[in-house]
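pls design
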């Protein structure tokens, strides 16, 4: 095959892989976010407290989702990333259907734990594949396109989930999300490319986990980026879990309408922000790679006034507009954040680096829903039905500022981390 033909074939492989991985992200986040819009109906049906709802939508999912990311990442670095994805998508889809069969708090909590285990295998191999398929200069854009599965999954989950729950019940909404995942698993098995990677090859002796972790945790830009994303994740997961309940309680908006409105405010804003952030991040980083981290810092701090407005206003319309602006700006950090992680390590440990990043993000971020639920119950004696308003506003403003500090501080180490990764394609080879 001549040079032009080989180049065209490589581009087709890139496009096919990115589309398939986009659908992995889409279903991953659809299953995850759908539960938020179903919480009001689940609360009534299963007679749960806000603290119990916070546990189901936060910690129950996040803990094993985080912990299992490491072994999934190790498997993806050593063996077929395609096989890991097929198994992961199959498991989380089946467990989502199991959530629809739950009859009490314990059953639903256990089912969500199992969903988290399956979803832990989605992102590490996906990021590793994208990093091998796309050059450094295009990596933030490619990772952003993968990441738009999140806002589109949220859009569909909130819009369709709210309407289905209102008309047919929350259980039917969960069953409806399971079948597409099983279909996707089959498509991944037959069609997802598995590019060659250097210096390690699938099936080779693995780099020791201890040595791998020392390299990853020694990358200070990577660690600060993960901590910034974790604090932002805490407020984000809390928002997604509790906004439907906040709007139905404080503004008495029907669940179906809440789902549709939030699908636009959260989903469309994320979509625009992620795409724009990937393009802008790659362009600015050509001048100075620290712009990846500076962009992240600005993206999470600038929305603070919009969060305050959204949770102090008495107008539902203002809530939706303010959230749209806040989340559009906030999601500008998505692609640049992922680029810092992937560019800070060599190709042989990228999936594990993503898994470590996800452990940090989700162990901390997983407490967002729980924290807001706990604060709401504590504030209820004083504020009554408005306790959730004050709980959410406190978390969003406080943790935006904390996230911004970590991103800004991480910028100081970007150049050193990127140079270390390029100098040592296999950073642990001497370990």
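designed seq:
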């Amino acid at each position: 095959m001549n040079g032009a033909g080989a180049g065209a074939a490589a581009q087709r492989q890139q496009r096919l892989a990115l589309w398939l991985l986009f659908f992995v992200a889409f279903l991953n986040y659809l299953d995850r976010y759908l539960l938020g819009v179903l919480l009001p109906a689940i609360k009534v049906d299963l007679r749960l407290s806000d603290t119990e709802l916070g546990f189901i939508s936060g910690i129950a999912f996040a803990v094993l989702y985080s912990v299992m990311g490491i072994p999934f990442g190790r498997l993806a670095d050593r063996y077929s990333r395609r096989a890991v994805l097929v198994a992961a998508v199959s498991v989380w889809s089946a467990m989502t259907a199991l959530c629809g069969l739950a009859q009490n708090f314990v059953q639903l909590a256990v089912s969500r734990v199992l969903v988290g285990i399956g979803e832990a295998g989605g992102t590490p191999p996906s990021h590793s594949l994208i990093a091998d398929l796309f050059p450094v200069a295009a990596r933030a854009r490619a990772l952003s396109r993968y990441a738009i599965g999140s806002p589109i999954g949220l859009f569909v989950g909130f819009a369709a989930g709210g309407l289905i729950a209102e008309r047919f019940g929350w259980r039917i909404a969960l069953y409806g999300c399971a079948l597409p995942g099983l279909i996707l698993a089959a498509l991944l098995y037959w069609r997802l490319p598995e590019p060659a990677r250097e210096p390690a090859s699938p099936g080779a002796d693995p780099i020791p986990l201890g040595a791998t972790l020392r390299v990853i945790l020694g990358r200070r830009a990577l660690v600060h980026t993960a901590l910034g994303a974790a604090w932002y994740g805490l407020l984000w997961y809390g928002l997604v879990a509790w906004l439907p309940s906040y709007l139905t309680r404080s503004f008495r908006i029907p669940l179906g309408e809440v789902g549709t409105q939030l699908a636009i405010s959260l989903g469309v804003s994320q979509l625009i922000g992620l795409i724009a952030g990937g393009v802008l991040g790659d362009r600015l980083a050509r001048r100075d790679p620290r712009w990846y981290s500076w962009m992240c810092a600005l993206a999470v701090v600038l929305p603070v006034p919009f969060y305050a407005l959204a949770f102090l206003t008495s107008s539902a319309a203002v809530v939706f507009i303010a959230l749209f602006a806040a989340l559009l700006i906030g999601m500008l950090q998505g692609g640049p954040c992922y680029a810092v992680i992937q560019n800070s390590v060599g190709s042989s440990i990228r999936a594990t680096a993503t898994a470590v990043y996800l452990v940090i993000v989700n162990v901390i971020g997983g407490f967002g829903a729980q924290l807001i639920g706990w604060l709401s119950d504590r504030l209820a004696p004083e504020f009554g039905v408005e306790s959730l308003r004050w709980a959410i506003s406190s978390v969003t403003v406080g943790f935006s500022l904390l996230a911004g500090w970590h991103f800004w501080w991480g910028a100081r180490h970007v150049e050193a981390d990127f140079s270390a990764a390029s100098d040592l394609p296999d950073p642990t080879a001497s370990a």
